[in-house]
Amino acid sequence: MRSVPRCAQAALAIVFxxxxxxxxxxxxxxxxxxxxxxxxxxxxxxxxxxxNPAAAVAAGRGGAGHLLWEGDGGSVSLLNRAQFRWTNxxxxxxFQLPGTAGPxxxxxxxxxxxxxxxxxxxxxxxxxxxxxxxxxxxxEPGTSTTSPLEDFILNWDASKNGRFQIAVGQFxxxxxxxxxxxxxxxxxxxxxxxxxxxxxxxxIGVQLWGLLGQGKVEYRxxxxxxxxxxxxxxxxxxxxxxxxxxxxxxxxxxYSESDFESKDRPLLAVTGEFESNDxxxxxxxxxxxxxxxxxxxxxxxKGVFLFAEYFWRHRTPEVAAAFDSNGFHAQAxxxxxxxxxxxxxxxxxxxPSSLLPGNDRKETGGVVNYYLSKHNLKLQADFxxxxxxxxxxxxxxxxxxxxxxx
Length: 406
Hints:
Blueprint: H1 6-30, H2 56-59, E1 66-71, E2 74-91, E3 107-123, E4 125-135, E5 149-157, E6 165-172, H3 177-180, H4 193-198, E7 202-212, E8 217-224, E9 240-247, E10 267-278, E11 288-301, E12 304-317, E13 323-337, E14 341-351, E15 361-371, E16 377-388, E17 393-405
Antiparallel strand pairs: 1-2, 2-3, 2-17, 3-4, 4-5, 5-6, 6-7, 7-8, 8-9, 9-10, 10-11, 11-12, 12-13, 13-14, 14-15, 15-16, 16-17
């Protein structure tokens, strides 16, 4: 039987949700005293935007979305975002890029890096929210190559005040602040090489989370399949476990790079996190049992943005010797013109294995950003150098990107 194309699957999903909204609206009109709301749902009290499902409900990850419909039985809001990028790769003289005449020859490429649609809202009760995100420009790491589905989340605020919430579905596991920060709220054109090595993005599972102490403490605890997203089943008889605990003493430090939030006081957040994922017997290969500990911190004040994170990982293969690896990332940005013109720099490095000497990988880069409407409409130009000691290879990249959220 021939499979349905990805675009058709996505179109069917949107049509289905639109039909549900239309039917619900019609049902509300048949009631004697319909009570539709003229404005979007109130903002939930939450700090996260990527991975904390309810945060996207009222405004979406990129900002205020378009409210398509809201009645006494639910709501539907729409948000789109797109990134158009030009990249010029400049390899070492001893390395040849595919499609070039010889070693050391540079190559430029245009690309639609991301094009995504989000449908968010609440259903039946305002404390029961949902999010559906579809990707039109190819899958993100860890997601399916045959389906455009990235996130589908149901989130229940059991406490009705944000203290105790339950999320089920497919979404980002709580590991790594930069990974949890939406791709449209990055200071650079994309995340650094550290994020893809230690955090793998989305999975299917259940997460308990909430805010305590007047929003000063955020906790997340989750259990997941432990394999790439959109799989039909678990790879083995074990699960992945995650725990993340964040302290923000001076107020809500949003999961957003750059400093658009601090006005009259600094914002600070420090976090500890843990992940355990035993993949033994998942395949016929020498599968890994992995434990990761992480720390991260972020500081924002008067246009200054400082961010750092560290990961330590221990891996035990089924047959081979166990080994450790670690990595860190430091990033700093400053507005030359408040909320308009920004410069930033970052450095990231990691050691893939303690058993192999001289195999470190590093990234050094800088960026200039011009914001027309904060992260919703911006132009970015960054330059970075990537080093792979195991291959004795260095590559430079110039990336120019524009982003629009609408």
